[in-house]
From TrEMBL:
Protein name: Molybdopterin synthase sulfur carrier subunit
UniProt record similarity statement: Belongs to the MoaD family.
Sorted UniProt keywords: Nucleotide-binding
Gene3D superfamilies linked: 3.10.20.30
Domain of life assignment: Bacteria
GO CC term (a single one): molybdopterin adenylyltransferase complex
TM spans (from-to): none
Keyword Nucleotide-binding: yes
Any Pfam family: ThiS
A GO molecular-function descriptor: nucleotide binding
CDD domains noted in UniProt: Ubl_MoaD
Taxonomic path: Bacteria, Pseudomonadati, Pseudomonadota, Betaproteobacteria, Burkholderiales
Designated gene of the protein: moaD
GO biological process, one term: Mo-molybdopterin cofactor biosynthetic process
InterPro entries in alphabetical order: Beta-grasp_dom_sf, MOCS2A, Mopterin_synth/thiamin_S_b, ThiS/MoaD-like
Length: 85
């Protein structure tokens, strides 16, 4: 069953993909499956979210692993790891 979710993108991911937020319909069961679905779009999506890149993910404003179950109505945020100094 398809789920309606909201995807938010931050920092360099937002810049690379040209959007900060989008509504998305998906059949993905987990956050990892959602990431793979977005990578499969190809182009900038594959480059920005590709498995060769470290990407953090949050589910409903809480840090999550890619194994987390993706519920209908969720807010999913992708962002690069924070660096500081």
């Amino acid at each position: 069953m398809d789920k309606r979710i909201r995807i938010r993108l931050f920092a360099s991911l937002r810049e690379a993909l040209g959007t900060a937020e989008l509504a998305h319909t998906t059949a993905a069961a987990t956050l990892g499956a959602l990431r793979d679905e977005l990578i499969a779009r190809g182009g900038a999506w594959a480059e920005a979210l590709g498995r060769h890149r470290p990407v953090r993910v949050a589910l409903n404003q809480a840090m999550a692993t890619e194994e987390a179950t993706l519920p209908d109505g969720a807010e999913v945020a992708f962002f690069p790891p924070v660096t500081g100094g």
